Amino acid sequence: MADLRFDSPAPRFTDVPRPRRAEGQWAFGYREPLNKNEESKKNDDPLNVRDRILHIYSKRGFDSIDPADLRGRFRWMGLYTQRRPGIDGGRTGALEEEELDDRYFMLRVRTDGKLLSPDAVRALGQIGVDFARDTADVTDRQNIQYHWIEVENVPAIWERLDAVGLHSTEACGDSPRPFLGSPVAGVAADEIIDGSAALAEIERRFIGDKAFSNLPRKFKTALTGHPSHDVSPETNDVSFVGTVHPEHGPGFDLWVGGGLATNPMLAQKMGVWIPLDEVADAWSGVASIFRDYGYRRLRSRARLKFLVADWGIEKFREVLENEYLGRPLVSNPSPPSPVGHRDHIGVHPQKDGRFYVGIAPTVGRVSGSLLVRLADLLDQHGVTGARLTPYQKIVLIGVDGDAVEPLLADLDEIGLSARPSGWRRNAMACTGIEFCKLAIVDTKQRAADLVAELERRFPDLDALVPGGITINVNGCPNACARTQVADIGLKGQLVTHEGRQVEGFQVHLGGATGLNANFGRKLRAHKVTSAALDDYVTDVVTAYLADRKDDESFADWVARADEELLRGEARERLDQRQLEGALA
Question: Which of 295, 386, 547, 584 is most buried, by the most CB atoms less than 10 A from its CB?
Fold first, then answer.
């Protein structure tokens, strides 16, 4: 196997055709940086910024920070400057980054599928209370995300995280971003295999390793041994998905090249069987291919999905086996895809006789004080711990049978219900214009208001549509909230209304992961203003309920529905009695 250290020459693979146009691929000798991001990483490994934060910037303050660190290398420590208040969405793309910068930071804390003890949950909450103006969000990367962080307080925050086994290293940047792990790993009664040890090994060996701190762009990892595929494996750069080999038993298939944003692609399935103790090696091989062959010339093409699309899965497997692993992988049919994805909300039996309980903060928004109260409940009811989910939810692990009902009642009291409406259960939203420098529209509050209004207008939807209807709200085209794979995906943009630009959304309808994985249907020239969103969603859902056939899913209905129904024109098309019957 080739020497894959960061500072060694990249391997040259003769069986891979040399590109006609230089893409900045290290494997072909293109080491000279082709854009300012690559130049910054070459000038100084981003991981080195940790010491400068600890010993210089936290002592001298915001004005002492080198701009190359502030808007570049800080990301490898999970830190982004947040959006300066008062800048509307129309100026997001028009201003330079330094004009958008506030003097405060967003901080992401990675959990990597870990089971968080009550002490860890309390520490996360207290950080929010003490250093982040009581903010804390659960993200769809299983992070806790804070706002209003001052650089002077970062060392103290890191100390508190270290004390409970957490950190923010490479939570952002062109690096191995936080891992997604099954929220019910090790406890679910129907689990195929527990992959927790593999995620821990990848973190131990490779996070903070300079061999992988200069990737072409972000690199997202997911792993699950649960048959519901509860980590959205189709949308990650590399995913390990539980499978069973007829002779070797449980292991993992390998999927590569998933990603969303403006050029969405679903991961390609390799159809292999990898044992638990070889997952970390396989991860290293995939990450190394990305590092050495990934396109570095244009940031817009610097994701692994473009390389996989160009090579094809067979070539990718060949290079992985021959040049990185040094051995063939065992072939095995990819596991069947489930219908939909389990979010683990509600009460479920564990294989040890206890229970796990999934709870639903609305669009991931919690607070530091709320996490502290949650930690108190975990201690009070003898709960083992908690995991965050890839759907902005929380799963409580290890609840005794006689503690379930008292716990549920106390969770309802603090607004973290394990019995939420389908609307609340199935909604996600990114950070939005409140704090994000890339956003164009408000998302968190707008999504929460939409959920509340839909609960009022469709109080019985759970009985009519048992699986519910997913709504994902994003503030820009980057799809952090996975808009393209939601039943109703809303991508923020400015919309012209009555001669002026207002906040609005491009609509994606009928997206899905799982058995019928696909990207949502976009309607030509169709936009919805934020102010009209409640009525638009109401009209589309009403049309679905009136026009569907038997138990037809929302996604299946969207695939065949007339465009005028999808544009929210149901009341002009359907008889009023049909509409009333659908809602009865």
Answer: 386
Indicate the pLDDT class of residue 4, thresholds 50, 70 and 90. very low
End-to-end CA distance of the chain: 65
- The answer to whether 223 touches 240, Cβ cutoff 8 Å, is yes
- Residue tagged 């927790």 (tokens): 196
State the Cα–Cα distance between residues 509 and 531, nearest whole angstrom: 19
Q: Is 514 left (phi over 0), alpha (psi -120 to 50) or beta?
A: left
CA atoms within 13 A on the CB side of 448: 13
Cα 242 from Cα 252, distance rounded (Å): 5
Strand partners, 560: none
Domains for the chain: give ranges and CATH numbers: 425-583 (3.30.413.10)
Residue 223: name the closest of 261, 176, 262, 160 by CA.
Answer: 176
Sheet holding 137-138, edge to edge: 79-83, 101-110, 143-149, 137-138
How does DSSP classify residue 53? Answer: I
Taking alpha carbons only, the member of 291, 312, 313 closest to residue 302 is: 291
Q: From CA 404, how far away is CA 336, in angstroms rounded?
A: 33
Q: What is the pLDDT of residues 272-292, one digit of tens each?
A: 999 999 999 999 999 999 999
How far, CA to CA in Å, does 211 sit from each of 1, 72, 175, 197, 202?
15, 18, 10, 22, 13
Q: How far apart, in whole angstroms, are the C-alpha atoms of residue 301 and residue 544?
A: 37
For 343, how many CA atoms within 13 A lie in the half-sphere containing its CB? 25
Distance in angstroms (rounded) separating the CA atoms of residues 411 and 396: 11
* 3-class secondary-structure state, position 456: helix
Contact 232, 180 (CB under 8 A): yes
- Per the CB < 8 A criterion, the answer to whether 329 and 270 are in contact is yes
Residues 391, 566, 511, CA angle at the centre, nearest 5°?
30
pLDDT in tens, 556-575: 999 999 999 999 986 655 55
Mean pLDDT value across residues 261-271: 95
By residue count, the chain amounts to 584
How far apart CA 270 and CA 273 sit, in angstroms, is 9
- Placement of tokens 């065949």 in the chain: 560
Q: Which amino acid is at 373?
A: R
HSE-up of 128 (CA within 13 Å, CB side)? 25
- Report which of residues 469 and 3 the model is more confident about: 469
